[in-house]
Specification:
By secondary structure, the protein is an alpha/beta fold. The chain contains 10 helices and 13 strands. Helix 1 runs antiparallel to helix 2.
Amino acid sequence: MLSAVIDPPFGTHALPGWLERLRRWGQHIGRSGMARRVASLIRRVCMLGRDDPFDVEPFPGQRARLYPRDNLSEKRVFGATQFWDHAERDALQVAAKRATPPFHFVDAGANVGLYTLAVRSFGAMRGLAIEPDDENLRRLRINLAASRADEVTVAAFALADKAGEAVLSKTGANRGEIALGGQDSDGVTIQTRPLRDLVEDAGFQRIDALKIDIEGAEEPVLTAFYRDARRALWPRLVLIEARRGEETPALDLLHQHGYRIHERTRMNAIMALKEEAEQS
């Protein structure tokens, strides 16, 4: 069923062999400042004179059709996967090793599915990818289909504290920055659902890890979730957008529900439920 959405077939937009070898080599040169500059140069060489998209393998065994010119996450993964949210992915990989298979992962604000594919590369998983934007959703479905990720459920909704409707708008040139509300005259009306409802609709009995990046709407969504979800459904690990040093209502809420900071990165907070944090 998933393979039917790949048109043209995956591989149509692959780089020439020598360029693909160069791109992959750039992902194994470390994360130093010099490596970052070299990787940036390699990305420019690979893209020179070629239009998006590009069919690549961003993570072991995973396939993605990337559009690096209009989506910052796709750009970073295309050019230098090792620099893209590496601390967050390391935390997820450790959590996946500790969990009883399959690892249950919820990608809230999934964009084109790169976090889901990264987690899938760690081993057996069961996923829920939540993404409301039509174009991101199209790319997400292609990436899951190309990777034969039939164990991932896609929910084409925006998250909110209750079911209803809202206007979805772009907040900048980056396709990853799409949020409810805003001033975009091209905003579209979409359906909203609470997180708990989507998780239960997907048949999840537990959540081993939740990544939530929904452009500032995290606090009302999480408030409704922790109010209504049974305790067994609380995620053991939460990755949430919060710049280093920034304190947000959503972080306060997580603290109140027994989460502790595992690590802060430049853009995200990695939070572990207390009993998980004590085992770290």
